[in-house]
Amino acid sequence: MANPKRKQSKRRSANRRAANAFLAPEFAKDSSGSLVRPHRVNPKTGIYRGRQVLDVEA
């Protein structure tokens, strides 16, 4: 089996892993029409998957 000639530096490994970190977060439309991160409770309304799960002070 082939072996690397030199040890790969920590910086090189970190740069390779960091390539995916620059993606913008995706948003989904809530039932009320507002944009929310998927699989999270809407902080403005307290609704998750069509059900009220948090009491939000208006």
β-strand percent reads 5-15%
Spatial strand arrangement across the major sheet? 1-2
Query: What gross morphology would you assign?
Result: rod-shaped
Structural class call reads alpha+beta
Low-confidence stretches: none
The biggest sheet amounts to:
2 strands, antiparallel
Discrete helix count:
1
* Structural Rg: 21 Å
Which whole number gives the mean pLDDT? 87
Compute the number of strand runs.
4
Q: How much helicity do the residues have?
A: 10-25%
Order of helices and strands: HEEEE
Distance between the termini: 65 Å
Features:
two-stranded antiparallel ribbon, two-stranded antiparallel sheet, rod-shaped
Describe this structure in words.
By secondary structure, the protein is of the alpha+beta class. The chain has a domain at 26-58. Helix content is 14%, strand content 14%. It has 1 helix and 4 strands. It has one helix at residues 10-17; strands at 28-29, 35-36, 47-48, 51-52. The strands form 2 sheets. A two-stranded antiparallel sheet has the order 1-2. A two-stranded antiparallel ribbon has the order 3-4. A hairpin with a 5-residue loop joins β1 and β2 (35-36). The radius of gyration is 21 Å and the shape is rod-shaped. 0% of the residues are buried. The mean pLDDT is 87.
